[in-house]
Amino acid sequence: MSTELTAAAALALLGLLVGSFLNVVVHRVPAGQSVVRPGSSCPECGSPVRARDNIPVVSWLLLRGRCRDCAHPISARYPLVELGCAALFGALTLRFGLSPILPALLFLAAIGLALAMIDLDVSRLPFEISVPGLGVTAVLLALAGFADGWSPVAVALLSALAWFGLYWSLWFGTGGRGMGLGDVVLAPTLGLALGWLGWGPSLVGLLGGFAIGSVVGVTLMLVGRAGRRSQIPFGPSMLAGALLGAFAGSAIWGAYLGTIG
């Protein structure tokens, strides 16, 4: 097995563990609860989750998706979040290798997955995650700068400003009806990280989020799941656009410039 595949496999395993913790974050942060204490327990009978039942994915399969004590069903979303985080970690490692920017991208993938799940659940992006997320991302990018040079800094800062400016304008211009404040707070973090990768990833990520959101909205209306006045969480589309920008933004932007050049 090549070094790249070995690294991707190792970080995918790490993603499983991180995904297990993200399930706690998704459940507790919106409720204002600590993500550290108390330990995990069954929401139905209150029995503590045993250590052997905390193995990502495997424990859910062995328990057949039910609590060991009361047989209450355990949502399939738990192993899906774990697998999703593992897939993101592995894919990002294959795409960027063991580069200095990888830790920042892995961190954003983790909090982005948690924020998307929370937004789908309660229609908000908690500041408890997004505000410190900006600081952590900035620190991780600074470490990347020390290791690999500071040439991306100017574009990253301008990108963060552009993302924030657009989202703030939409929020302010609609009186908060067309854009949530949580989206505004998250925007500069995504802009900063994607801008570090270049203008192509930043712009594709920015515009891609709105394109994905439009497709989701129209699809939900066509199948009767939403109306013209329905409030549809935008965070997942925003984050999906950022993911598109990270993985394919340079190629897409280059192809676009080729068509107009």
UniProtKB/TrEMBL annotation:
Pfam families assigned to the protein according to its UniProt record, in alphabetical order: A24_N_bact, Peptidase_A24
Main location (coarse class): membrane
Domain Prepilin type IV endopeptidase peptidase: 106-217
Transmembrane segments: 98-118, 153-173, 180-199, 205-224, 236-256
Record keywords: Cell membrane, Membrane, Transmembrane, Transmembrane helix
Record localization: Cell membrane
Keyword Phosphoprotein found: no
Boundaries of every Prepilin peptidase A24 N-terminal domain copy: 13-96
Keyword Transmembrane helix: yes
Topology with respect to the bilayer: Multi-pass membrane protein
Protein family (similarity comment): Belongs to the peptidase A24 family.
Record's protein name: A24 family peptidase
Organism: Sporichthya brevicatena
